[in-house]
Amino acid sequence: MNKILLTIVISVVLSACANNKSIYHWGQYESLLYKSYHVPGEGTPDIQIVQLEQDIEKAKSLGKKTPPGLYAHLGFMYASVGNSSLAMEALEMEKSLFPESTVLIDGMINRSLKNAEGNK
Amino acid sequence: MKQLLKLVPALFLFLTGCATIEPYNYAAYEAESPRSILVIPPLNSSIDVKASYTYLSTVTMPLAEKGYYVFPVSVIDNLLKENGLPTPAEMNSIPLDKIQEHIGADAVLYVTIEKWGQEYQVLSSSTMVKGYAKLVSVKSGNLLWEAPLEAQISSDSAGYGLVGALVSAAITQVVGNLNDGTPAVSSIANMRAFNATKRGLLNGPYKKIAKK
């Protein structure tokens, strides 16, 4: 009984104070960040790439937007496993979805191009 | 009586979230109306060394859902490390003009963590997050907004499972499957601070679009 009461109180709290309609589909992004910091082996770039790609598909199927930073993070993961073409694609995607990221993304792209030049 | 006691934390949430409180002075914030927020890895004065980066893994969702572009926290952390800033202490002292030049953020969220993790009492334990957040304009250096961060969940309160479940449902991520209660508590602390009535963050541009 008191669980029911508590549920009612909490749902009143949430409906009163927050808008529960999320703008984005979040998927595993933040939980992957946590794992990459604290759970060795569970947040490797390869694992993150697979899960983030799944999140992107899921977002599409739900008709939801992907959150800010997700494509940039994915691009960074692709770069860290040496897949520069998919990295570029993801970084450009971040920029086109969120023009606020332009300075950051252009800097990342320029630096990686310079590194690639240096390696030749 | 016991039932009533169990309701106290929920009611407390309710009251702090919605009661009539003196409104924040948003003059500087409204004048600059930032579109994008850079979160610098927090300064940590708690005894838990994991606090900074656990916090960092919980801050994107509530900020972005408030309508802001949030720079990719992990990408930024790596960028700063590559540029000779290995720890949050150093990252917190980057000059704003460097942020403008290399990242292009409108505002920076600086966070200080004071308490983090489990506290053991005689009959129960609680997981708590306590700290402080401030939003600073990159262009002018003006303080746009500040708020305390605070949340606590007791292991013996009926609210533990419920609030946890609701939070993870709301953010559709699996904080509950981790063997660590602090991400969930940190999420609650963020949501309370960012969404506090009359004292929370103003809605950012993507929230305004979504509402139309």
Summed up:
With 120 residues, chain A is mostly helical. Chain A is built from six helices and no strands. Chain B has one domain (9-196): 3-Layer(aba) Sandwich (Rossmann fold), CATH 3.40.50.
Topology record:
The complex is a heterodimer of chains A (about 120) and B (about 210).
Chain A: H1 2-17, H2 29-38, H3 45-62, H4 70-80, H5 84-97, H6 102-119
Chain B: H1 2-18, H2 27-32, E1 36-39, E2 43-44, H3 51-56, H4 60-64, E3 69-70, H5 73-82, H6 88-91, H7 96-102, E4 107-120, E5 125-137, E6 143-154, H8 159-171, H9 182-195, H10 205-211
Parallel strand pairs in B: 1-3, 1-4, 2-4
Antiparallel strand pairs in B: 4-5, 5-6
Question: What attributes does this structure have?
Answer:
heterodimer, A: 120 residues, mainly alpha, Serine Threonine Protein Phosphatase 5, Tetratricopeptide repeat, 6 helices, disordered N terminus, B: 212 residues, alpha/beta, Rossmann fold, 22% strand, globular
Structure description:
The complex is a heterodimer of chains A (120) and B (212). Chain A contains six helices and no strands. Chain A has one domain: Serine Threonine Protein Phosphatase 5, Tetratricopeptide repeat (Alpha Horseshoe). Chain A is an all-alpha fold and 120 residues long. Helices cover 42% and strands 22% of the residues of chain B. Chain B is α/β, with parallel strands linked by helices. Residues 168-177 of chain B have low confidence and may be disordered. In chain B, strands 1, 2, 3, 4, 5 and 6 form a six-stranded mixed sheet that branches. The termini of chain B are far apart. Chain B contains ten helices and six strands, in the order ααββααβαααβββααα. Chain B has one domain (9-196): ABC-type transport auxiliary lipoprotein component (Rossmann fold, 3-Layer(aba) Sandwich). The chains are: A mainly alpha (120), B alpha/beta (212). Chains A and B meet through helix 1, helix 2, helix 4 and helix 6 of A and helix 1, helix 3, helix 4, strand 3 and helix 5 of B.
